[in-house]
Structure prediction request, 390 residues.
Amino acid sequence: MIRSIDTLLVPIPTIREHKLACTVMREQVLVLVHIQTEDGFAGWGEATTIGGLSYAEESPHSIKTNIDTYFTPLLLKEQPSSTAKAMQLLSLHITGNRFAKCAIETALLDIEGQRLGIPVSELLGGRVRDAIEVAWTLASGDTATDIAEAKEMVAQKRHRIFKLKIGSNPILDDVAHVLAIKKAVPECRISVDVNQAWTELEAMQGISLLEAGGVDLIEQPISMRNRAGLKRLKDRFDVAIMADEIVQDPQNAFHLASEHCADVFAVKINQAGGLKAACLIGQMAHLAGIELYGGTMLEGPIGTAASVHVFATYPSLNFDTEMFGPLLLTEDILVRPLDYNNFGLTVPTGAGLGIEVDTDKVYYYAKRSNITLPTMSQPNAKSGKFATES
Ligand code: MUC
Ligand code: MG
Prediction:
């Protein structure tokens, strides 16, 4: 039986400004979900989005409000006996709200895995890899700073694949920026993410210049509303075209896959509506002959752990991943940080998500902000345990 579901808004500053075509981030607000059961288990989930409402139609505040107002009363009343039944119940009574659903499912799977003594990846069908390559996004807004950052990442064996955020400057300036970085680190794979900023005509100009300059991957160059246009660009160019914002729930991913609208799908657990939905999209894309890329909604460590369990199950992951969210934040909320080494992230092996959340830190960062704290059971200051924990 579920005893309680608590939600917390936890804002954490980023290590530098992170500039996208749609917003400039200086902090990331983690929406944390803590579920406790009557038989003594506790699980964590997380939802994130990017720049309030500038990236997607859910914001940290809407996610928290909707979980507190609609999800929690429903789950406490109905007491579904498994994660699958809980998600079925939510999809029956709650439309949309994919990010909020993802946070709830993550916490429930964390509990289910702990109860069975197996990692979440095994609940999702089983991992086929134990470590996953992780790209880094260069988005300081300055070419020289980005080059120095890229060289430092390679030297530290942290990352050797780089994604560049473009689309907010004139096309020729953006192309010059990208090609200067490509020239500075020629051994590295370079992709660009336009975050929907170009028109189809602008995309034709931009992509042909980037393709000629040796760029490896072009992500969501045009509006997610122009599905036919994305397919036209994919058919026109040799360089791989990746769908991101347009890839949402499995139903919509099914249509994209059946029409083969892109060469690659970026899959994000929040955007998919949860971990099982993200697995389904991965399997569907694979069956349709579409390559896979493990995307990020710049999740903190809980959402990133959930993502790595999902991507570990993918039958192929030829374009690797970008699960660097925790590394963009100035603070960690885990007792032991996720294990980034040798250009990748190790898939946790412990039961559930395989992580331990530091509740004192979570409360400290939540309280430090001027975001209104939720009505939830406060942890005992000494033990770090929640008041309702025995
Ligand atoms: C996006 O659109 O892919 C992922 C990496 C990053 O820097 O931003 C996100 C969002
Ligand atoms: Mg993207």
